[in-house]
Specification:
It contains 15 helices and 11 strands. By secondary structure, it is an alpha/beta fold. The protein has 2 domains: 55-254, Aspartate Aminotransferase, domain 2, CATH 3.40.640.10; 257-396, Aspartate Aminotransferase, domain 1, CATH 3.90.1150.10. It is globular. The protein starts with a helix and ends with a helix.
Length: 398
């Protein structure tokens, strides 16, 4: 009889697979996997046969999430990472960014992306050129001058909600043989599919709209099969891969993405209109407003699906004290450093998302002490507006 010590370790494990197919994807925690023979395992390691050998390579739960997001983006394949910044970094490396190469990036990109490019990659010998990505001609001029390995832009920029003309930028990158990387976190595949406009890589912080419930830290890159192989080779060494528990949550959140985004876009439109008429607000940034300088491009990119769930605005009393007073006065809207959740959220870019950007550069971009960013949730729009109205009156008294 086998010892109880041995039984305690092995009993109940590795039973026969059920005949039935589960309705939802199971959560596979296992780090290692068994194959019928060493020869089969060799084929899996070599890539000759599909399969699983080690969780850093992939897992069934992570693959299910990758298949789902690739389908929604209209891509051939996807690679999931431990965070949105890991996805940005992996896409840049897969695009060939190395010491001695050059990168063109949108000037008003996410603060952590700016920091990655301006410090870490620059220290490693990459030359980065920050360009106004709202002007395809400027990007074209810079691209033909510098011949970058990659051009990195955001579909909707963070935090001033400027738009990238992805199709025009793709024509430029195609002409010079560069890769076009589009961070589409703010848009999500509900609003825009950059691969259909000839982008090479689409990046998401899946922590945001894809997860949607404030309980996921994840990133994902959607691209071609051949580019996914590059991503896999990189992350197999770096190890910034997605855990199956998080992939399961992201997959669950993805199922309601269109429903959430539809409501968030509708609510954001109402909030933007309200703010544009408020006496305590100097300026509103929202692509859905006719006053937005790229409103026509927004209509081309997004059709009738909406204009996103993000709204930014400038307090008329544009001081740090007024911004703090506004945040402290909120009761329903949560002052948290994230976005895309079912909850409405408020963020102060100077303090949070763009803290790493030098003050002079922030000021030049228009990220001032009076700028606030809202991520509109799925609550009743009247309740959101009432909370913002009360907080604005407090801020106006500072």
């Amino acid at each position: 009889m086998t010892s109880i010590f041995t039984q305690a370790v092995h009993a109940g494990e590795r039973g026969p697979a059920p005949r039935e197919v589960p309705v939802t994807t199971p959560l596979y925690h296992s780090v290692g996997y068994l194959e019928p023979s060493a020869a089969v395992m060799e084929d899996v390691f070599s890539g000759e046969t599909a399969g699983y050998v080690y969780r850093r390579y992939t897992s069934p739960t992570v693959e299910a999430f990758e298949r789902a997001i690739a389908a929604l983006e209209g891509g051939d394949a996807a690679f999931a990472t431990a965070s949105g910044m890991a996805a940005v970094h992996a896409a840049l490396l897969a695009a060939g960014v190395r010491a001695g190469s050059q990168v063109i990036a949108a000037r008003d990109c996410y603060g952590a992306t700016y920091d990655l490019l301006a410090t870490l990659l620059a220290e490693q010998g990459v030359t980065v050129h920050f360009v106004d990505a709202t002007d395809p001609c400027r990007v074209e001029d810079a691209a033909f001058l510098h011949r970058p390995a990659a051009v990195l832009v955001e579909t909707i920029s963070n935090p001033l909600l400027k738009l990238a003309d992805i199709a025009a930028l793709a024509r430029t990158t195609r002409a010079i043989g560069a890769a076009l990387i589009v961070d589409s976190t703010f848009a999500s595949p509900y609003l825009c599919r950059p691969l259909a406009l000839d982008a090479d890589y689409v990046v998401h912080s899946a922590s945001k709209y894809i997860g949607g419930h404030g309980d996921v830290l994840a990133g994902v890159v959607v691209t071609s099969h051949s580019n996914r192989e590059k991503l896999f080779a990189i992350e197999k060494k770096i190890g910034a891969v997605l855990a199956p528990e998080v992939a399961w949550l992201a997959l669950r959140g993805l199922k309601t993405l269109p429903l959430r985004m539809r409501e968030q876009c509708a609510n954001a439109t109402r909030v933007a209109r309200f703010l544009s008429e408020h006496s305590a607000v100097a300026q509103v940034y929202y692509p859905g407003l006719p006053s937005h300088p790229q409103h026509m491009l927004a209509e081309q990119l997004f059709g009738d699906r909406g204009f996103g769930g993000m709204v930014a605005f400038e307090l008329r009393n544009g001081t740090r004290a007024a911004a703090f007073a506004f945040l402290d006065a909120l009761k329903l809207v949560l002052p948290a450093t994230t976005l895309g959740d079912v909850y409405s959220l408020a963020l102060y870019p100077v303090m949070a998302s763009h803290r790493a950007v030098p003050p002079a550069e922030r000021a030049e971009l228009g990220i001032t002490d009076g700028l606030l960013r809202l991520s509109i949730g799925i609550e009743d729009a009247d309740d959101i507006i009432a909370d913002l109205d009360a907080a604005l009156h407090v801020a106006n008294m500072e």
